[in-house]
Amino acid sequence: MRKKQKVGDGLPPLVFCVFVVKLSSVALNDVIFLENTMTINSNFKYTKSHEWVEILNDGTYRIGITDYAQNALGDLVYVNMPSEGDAVEIGKPFADVESVKAVAELFSPVSGKICAVNGAVGDAPGLLNSEPYNSWVITVVDVTETEELLSPEEYEEFCKTATDT
Prior knowledge:
This protein is α+β, with helices and mostly antiparallel strands. The protein has a single domain, classed as CATH 2.40.50.100. It has five helices and 13 strands. Strands 5-6-7-13-12-9 form a six-stranded antiparallel β-sheet. Strand 3 and strand 4 form a beta hairpin. The radius of gyration is 15 Å and the shape is globular. The chain starts with a strand and ends with a helix.
């Protein structure tokens, strides 16, 4: 059985350096492209554990993993999805993703109730690799609390700092 870990835990710094060559951003159609590396959607908020959050007009929160996370994990082969109606709590795991490299937990940036689970991601985990910002994992309703979320610019700086160490 593989040890569960947070995205990036225990991976040598070289893993991140492979795809983070130079961080200079240019905005293009709501997505910030980090030269030769990863993308950041400028309409989303982010966590330090590399989940993204989209706050929808109806007050629900859609959550997925970032391009940075999917790059660090490698090819995703399995997602242990939660169920609709499950409660989520800030900082607590709500799903596991398994790649050819490791098993990592996804941590909830909000407290509330899961109102939708993206079955397409459960059926085809590779969608999280090929389309990380279109492939959400869960949608949460009745949100009572959120962790401190990072703006796209703050997240970009956080990722840059993480790769500089």
